[in-house]
Amino acid sequence: MRDFRMMLRPWSLAAFLCLLVVSAVILSNQGNPLALVTIGTRFSEGIPEDAGGTEGYDGQFVYYIARDPATAPAYLDVPAYRFQRILLPVTARALAFGQDALIPWALLAINLVALAAGTWLLERLLVAQGVSRWYALTYGLTIGIFGSVRLSVPEPLTYALVLAGIMLAGRERWGWSALLFALAALAKETALVFAAAYALYLLRHRRWRNLMMFSGIAVTPFVVWQVVLKATFGTFGVGSGGALATSFEVIPFAGVARIITDSPPDARLALLGIFGVILIPFVLIPTLWGLRQGWLALRRGDWSAVTLLLLVNALVLPFVPFSTYREPLGILRFIVGLQIAVVLYAAYRHDSRALRLSTIWIVTILFMGSLVTGN
After folding, report:
1. How many CA atoms lie within 13 A of 178 on its CB side?
2. Is 250 exposed, middle or buried (0-12, 13-18, 19+ CB in 10 A)?
3. For 152, left (φ over 0), alpha (ψ -120 to 50), or beta?
4. Which positions of the chain have pLDDT values less than 70?
5. What are the residue boundaries of the structural domains of the chain, listed by start?
6. From CA 133, how far away is CA 135, in angstroms rounded?
7. d(CA 140, CA 144)
8. pTM across the whole model
């Protein structure tokens, strides 16, 4: 029994439950792992939506790039935007030895390991602050990470690398930390928010040499890759967004307000329900809490890295595009960075109330019901 308790940890529980879910998806689709990729006929067969074409989900674009980068642009909604998240598809292609049939399995293996690794890393960071390791489930058992494994999208890999970068930064290993942030940014550009927070920390503490090294290593690969994308597709990947994407807002929380103002009158009641059930508890309240706590900490003279991680992540949310806010799954994937920052800051402050309240994010796993049946 003691050996079992030693083996039962947040990372193993999250990985085991996720394995059960993805197994159910595959079995319910006659053993076809492509169900995890969620392919739509609009992009795979060129059938327009008004002719009955299905949309699919973002994992299909990861799959197309991994299957054949040369032909993938024909199957992508916005090639530069999708190709900027290059790390997951090229890693899956390498792991599958270029075999099409193995690519969905490779995507699953990478993300499942990343889920376990990211949860384990957060456990270690929490234990180092003297708080319960089980608060790591606020990361590992939420739809932004757990659901992303089922959907074959980059969040598990991105944030596992981010958490490894945070751990190494805490040990003053700035070069290796920056390298991990550079890889994370090539998995998904939202990782740059964390790199920016650490750059601000080094700037505030006038650690010029570390700042130059960290910034150069963390950002240069992403910038170079953007130049390649511009030369190849005629546009940068960053900021271009996928199909029907809108730009970042200038007015704080305008993306939230536009859910109502830019929606058809007959859809507003349903959208208000979504707003109340999803955005208020899981997005807006944590964002406002993070902004307030970060501001109060700076007024106290607390310019720690953890404080800046919280404040920078919270500062991004008011300006998130309307197109992200209007898609419940999209915004729940976007807030993973804020989830990490909130938990780390609450642990740093030994704020047991905030840690307990952060577990509300685990409730988002209930939205997995619509993802279990496959396509």
Report:
1. 21
2. exposed
3. left
4. 1-6, 240-245, 369-375
5. 2-372
6. 5
7. 9
8. 0.94
